[in-house]
Amino acid sequence: LSSSFLSSPSSSKMPEIEFGTVAVGMTVTLKGQKCTVTAVKTLKAKRGQVNKIKVTGTNEAGEDVNETKPENRSIMAEGDVAGIKKKVAAVAEKAEEELDLSIASSAAGASKTIPVRAGEIRKGHFVCLKGKPCKVIAISVSKTGKHGH
């Protein structure tokens, strides 16, 4: 077998970028197929983990191809990658500038906490103790006192 048969011809031409910088209209490799990106969706990660990106593209046969990876993984891209990276950075910077961090007041009764009976609380629930949010990690139930039945 020749070495050209084993190596992928697209890998030598296409530079690698991070999955999180993929934008609509780019040509990338999804599941081993060269695709034009039609949609990019950011999926929320669990606490302490990296967000995942779902990229949908159309291959040369016109079929939709989906791939989901963490945003810091690399992917093969084609075209003016440096220009696209600059555009993505500019859009992110503009979004940060437009971000409104003011706190609006809420109406009475708009609390996000609700009263719950002590017997309904389970391990893993979140409760407010002395006005501070806490995660329940253990529960102990004591027996009734001297005069209890």
List keywords for this structure.
single chain, about 150 residues, alpha+beta, 6-stranded antiparallel β-sheet, two-stranded antiparallel sheet, disordered N terminus
Count the helices. How many? 3
Structural class: alpha+beta
N-C termini distance: 84 Å
Strand content: 25-35%
What series of H and E elements makes up the topology? HHEEEEEEHEE
Rg over CA atoms: 26 Å
Low-confidence stretches: 1-12
Could you report the average pLDDT, rounded to the nearest whole number? 75
Number of strands: 8
Strand order of the largest sheet: 1-6-2-3-4-5
The level of helicity is 10-25%
Largest beta-sheet characterization: 6 strands, antiparallel
Shape, per Cα inertia axes = elongated
Would you write up a description of this structure?
This protein has 149 residues and is an alpha+beta fold. The chain has helices spanning 3-6, 9-13, 81-98; strands at residues 16-18, 27-30, 33-43, 52-59, 64-70, 74-78, 126-129, 132-135. The protein has a 6-stranded antiparallel beta sheet. Strands 7-8 form a two-stranded antiparallel sheet. Mean pLDDT is 75; it is low at 1-12.
Write the layout of secondary structure elements.
Blueprint: H1 3-6, H2 9-13, E1 16-18, E2 27-30, E3 33-43, E4 52-59, E5 64-70, E6 74-78, H3 81-98, E7 126-129, E8 132-135
Antiparallel strand pairs: 1-6, 2-3, 2-6, 3-4, 4-5, 7-8
Q: How do you describe this structure in short?
A:
This protein has about 150 residues and is α+β, with helices and mostly antiparallel strands. The protein contains 3 helices and 8 strands, in the order ααββββββαββ.
